[in-house]
């Protein structure tokens, strides 16, 4: 079996894999990174979304061999610093309190990609359009969209001093329901 | 390029791989089992987008996302950039390539309509084909065994528009029309998704739009039901009606992809 060498979340990794191994299988089995989920296996659901050389792709439709030498970012890479998780993780923690969470790794990586490309220009319409490739079968889209917008940098009026933004600021502003996903009426916007 | 061609020659059942967004699903369904996959993405002459005097040259391995975001494409043929931005979803657009789409010639794919309506030429490792001679029926092309598309040369039109009625489940075109007006005023209309023999030019609409490039010129025109696909997704007469309405929409909003 051939060796596949690539960079995952900033660290060089190498493992043997059969030629036919898909990137999602390689990440989960060979490298033990089970954060990336294999959902539909038909490139519809987006649960397997990772960043390949900085672009969001569905890793169930990319051969591991095609990622040779590439730089891959997975959801695990967002929590390397336990004291300061990535703003998108914090925002999903605050807003996307669904019991299932199966789609979350893909949603989160799609969100990271979106925020990197659009920055302050990211608006609700763009988020809705660009989430086309990610399905949430709990239909938690409204909270996912809120989470992505909360994690994106915001435009500020001229002359005002920009300050560090994190999910706590966002939580103050948008008042997520703390029992969302558990209490009565939890699915009303789902 | 030479290495890819040689690798193809020496295998029993080889296949070229670009974005893989057609071939890998086909392999998962056990409809193809190549014994050698040859990844074309890193071949330098297959990359890049260049504006030339009267045309755009797009490398075969350029992704839909790059075409959608490309300043020269958006300036020269904005409807083509918008078409590219309407394919699949973000992740699919990041991997899928124009060359892969053309070589596969899915009867519901978007690019064949643009390539045919713009009168593009498809350059391969061994020759250059006019769009009319390139597409052959459903999933068929004039490509020989082992032939590799290098790039597509798309003449810059005076105006062009695209309109697509999506299948709500698959999100592929149920019927889509690409309309282009050449600098000399001649109009070309190509329809994807609808024809029982794949992408086709609609001659009557071209004649009408050549006389007056405006939606009312199409009033009363509908292509024949006999040349339409007829399946569970839409009946032949529905597809024929959509050909007329999508063509009119494409004319009404040039420089855009109108998605329904």
Features:
heterodimer; A: 190 residues; alpha+beta; Ubiquitin-like (UB roll); DNA polymerase, domain 1; 2 domains; 12% strand; globular; disordered C terminus; B: 260 residues; Uridine Diphospho-n-acetylenolpyruvylglucosamine Reductase, domain 3; Enolase-like, domain 1; 5-stranded mixed beta sheet; 12 strands
The chain-level structural class of chain A is alpha+beta
Radius of gyration of chain A: 17 Å
The top-level CATH class of the largest domain in chain B is: Alpha Beta
Low-confidence stretches of chain B: none
Largest sheet geometry of chain B = 5 strands, antiparallel
Instruction: Please provide the count of β strands of chain A.
Output: 5
What does the model show?
The complex is a heterodimer of chains A (190) and B (260). Chain A folds into two domains: 3-78, Ubiquitin-like (UB roll) (Roll); 81-174, [2Fe-2S]-binding domain (DNA polymerase, domain 1, Orthogonal Bundle). Chain A starts with a strand and ends in a 16-residue tail after the last helix. Chain A is globular, with a radius of gyration of 17 Å. Chain A is α+β, with helices and mostly antiparallel strands and 190 residues long. In chain A, α2 (87-95) packs antiparallel against α5 (141-151) and α2 (87-95) runs parallel beside α6. Helix content of chain A is 31%, strand content 12%. Chain A is built from six helices and five strands; from the N terminus they run ββαβββααααα. A five-stranded mixed beta sheet of chain A has the order 2-1-5-3-4, sandwiched between helices. Chain B contains eleven helices and twelve strands. In chain B, a hairpin with a 6-residue loop joins β8 and β9. Chain B has helices spanning 2-9, 23-28, 64-69, 71-76, 78-84, 90-95, 98-104, 111-117, 131-134, 203-211, 236-252, and strands at residues 14-17, 36-39, 49-51, 55-59, 121-124, 128-130, 149-155, 159-166, 173-181, 187-192, 200-201, 257-259. Chain B is an alpha+beta fold and 260 residues long. Chain B has two domains: 2-25 and 46-155, 2-Layer Sandwich (Uridine Diphospho-n-acetylenolpyruvylglucosamine Reductase, domain 3); 159-259, Enolase-like, domain 1 (2-Layer Sandwich). The model of chain B has no long low-confidence stretch (mean pLDDT 97). In chain B, the strands form three sheets. In chain B, strands 3-4-7-5-6 form a five-stranded antiparallel beta sheet. Chains A and B meet through β4 and α3 of A and α2 and α6 of B.
């Amino acid at each position: 079996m051939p060796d596949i060498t690539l960079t995952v979340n900033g660290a060089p990794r190498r493992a043997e894999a059969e030629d036919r191994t898909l990137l999602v299988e390689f990440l989960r089995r060979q490298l033990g990174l089970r954060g990336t989920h294999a959902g539909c296996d038909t490139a519809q659901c987006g649960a397997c979304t990772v960043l390949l050389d900085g672009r969001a792709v569905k890793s169930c439709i990319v051969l591991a061999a095609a990622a040779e030498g590439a730089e891959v970012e997975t959801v695990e890479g967002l929590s390397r610093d336990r004291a300061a998780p990535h703003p998108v993780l914090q925002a999903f923690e605050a807003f996307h309190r669904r019991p299932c969470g199966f789609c979350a790794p893909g949603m989160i990586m799609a969100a990271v990609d979106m925020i990197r490309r659009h920055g302050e220009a990211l608006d609700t319409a763009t988020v809705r359009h660009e989430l086309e490739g990610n399905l949430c079968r709990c239909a938690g889209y409204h909270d996912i969209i809120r989470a992505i917008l909360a994690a994106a940098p915001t435009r500020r009026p001229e002359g005002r001093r920009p300050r560090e933004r994190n999910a706590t600021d966002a939580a103050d502003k948008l008042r997520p329901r703390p029992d969302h996903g558990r209490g009565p009426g939890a699915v009303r916007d789902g | 390029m030479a290495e890819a061609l040689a690798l193809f020659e020496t295998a029993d059942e080889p296949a070229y791989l670009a974005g893989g967004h057609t071939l890998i699903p086909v392999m998962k369904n056990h409809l193809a089992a190549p014994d050698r996959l040859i990844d074309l993405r890193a071949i330098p002459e297959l990359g890049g987008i260049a504006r030339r005097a009267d045309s755009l040259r797009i490398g075969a391995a350029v992704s839909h996302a790059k075409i959608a975001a490309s300043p020269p494409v958006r300036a020269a043929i904005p409807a083509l950039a918008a078409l590219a931005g309407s394919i699949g979803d973000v992740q699919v657009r990041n991997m899928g390539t124009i060359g892969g789409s053309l070589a596969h010639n899915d009867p519901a794919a978007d690019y064949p309509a643009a390539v045919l309506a713009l009168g593009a030429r498809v350059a391969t490792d061994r020759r250059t084909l006019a769009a009319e001679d390139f597409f052959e029926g459903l999933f068929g092309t004039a490509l020989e065994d082992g032939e590799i598309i290098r790039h597509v040369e798309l003449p810059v039109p005076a105006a062009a528009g695209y309109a697509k009625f999506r299948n709500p489940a698959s999100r592929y075109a149920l019927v889509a029309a690409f309309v282009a007006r050449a600098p000399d005023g001649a109009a070309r209309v190509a329809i994807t998704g609808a024809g029982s023999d794949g992408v086709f030019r609609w001659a009557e609409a071209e004649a009408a739009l050549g006389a007056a490039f405006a939606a009312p010129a199409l009033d009363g025109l509908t292509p024949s039901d006999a040349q339409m696909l007829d399946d569970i997704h839409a009946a032949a007469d529905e597809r024929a009606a959509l050909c007329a309405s999508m063509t009119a929409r494409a004319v009404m909003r040039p420089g855009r992809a109108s998605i329904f």
